[in-house]
Amino acid sequence: MGETFSQLGAQEDENTAILPPDSSSHGGSRVFSAPCERAAGASYVTCPTCQGNKEIPRELERQLVALIPYGDQRLKPRHTELSVCLAVLVCLVTTSLTIFFLFPRSIDTQPAGLNSSSTVTLDEAVYINITSILNISNSNYYPIRVTQLTIEVLHLSVVVGQVSTSLLLDIGPLASKQMFYAVANKIWDENTVKICSWLKIKVHHVLLHIQGTLTYICLSHSEQKVFQSYEYVDCRENTSAPHLLVPHLP
After folding, report:
1. Which of 48, 75, 168, 202 lies at 20 to 30 Å from 91 by C-alpha?
2. pLDDT tens across 102-127, in order?
3. Which residues are CB-neighbours of 129 under 8 A, at least 6 positions away?
4. Contact present, 147 and 222 (Cβ < 8 Å)
């Protein structure tokens, strides 16, 4: 009994007219469809849209949904797997390239030795002014800007000279530049004074330990690079001429 009532209810729902009963009596224009011929022995269900009249009012043309067969190709997605794979591949390639080019790499600082020096020896101290060369290489795929250079010079583990310089040195991607820095040093060691002033001593060299910190900006944030070097300076009372410029690093 329950199945019979459900079938009757479903049939009544299908036979319920979507269009108002008097829609065909108005003088509005209609959209006609071609007559369809029924095949022999086939069962049919009355279309709930037009109630078998094969026509609907033209003013309701944009308000009614057309019936599309379930097996219509328009309802079947085509190349879905290919589209998804291509989208995933493009995202992976884009992400990989972005990480590769924007991944921050440390810059390379290489001291290139002394360019010039001047020495004055007094009874109690030795004054040594040095000018050194520093090569800076940018291994990133974006430019950087050097903003500050801090140098500290030590002799026998004692600080004998300091300097801090503000800079605005721009270095392009995968490029290198060379810069000079000067430090005034004052050594108060008695033995060093004797080494630099006694004529009986043939070698007048003083070992200086140079420590430096380079501050630069990359991708809107500040980074620091620490470097150090050891330089022998002739501390006889003289002035050495500047050396030839060291070629830039490749």
Report:
1. 75
2. 888 889 999 998 998 998 888 789 99
3. 117, 118, 119, 182, 183, 184, 185
4. yes
C-alpha span between 125 and 38 (Å, rounded): 120
| DSSP symbols for the chain | -HHHHHHHHHHHHHHS-SS-GGGGTS---EEE----PPPTT------TTTTTSSEEEGGGTTTSPPP--TT-GGGS--SHHHHHHHHHHHHHHHHHHHHHHHS----EEEEEEEEEEEEEE-SS-EEEEEEEEEEEE--SSS-EEEEEEEEEEEETTEEEEEEEEEEEEEE-TT-EEEEEEEEEEEE--HHHHHHHH-SS-S--EEEEEEEEEEEEEETTEEEEEEEEEEEEEE-SS-EEPPPPPPPPP-
The per-residue pLDDT for range 140-171, each reduced to its tens digit, is 999 999 999 999 999 999 999 999 999 999 99
d(CA 68, CA 55): 17
Q: Which domains can be identified in the chain, with CATH numbers?
A: 2-72 (no CATH), 108-240 (2.60.40.10)
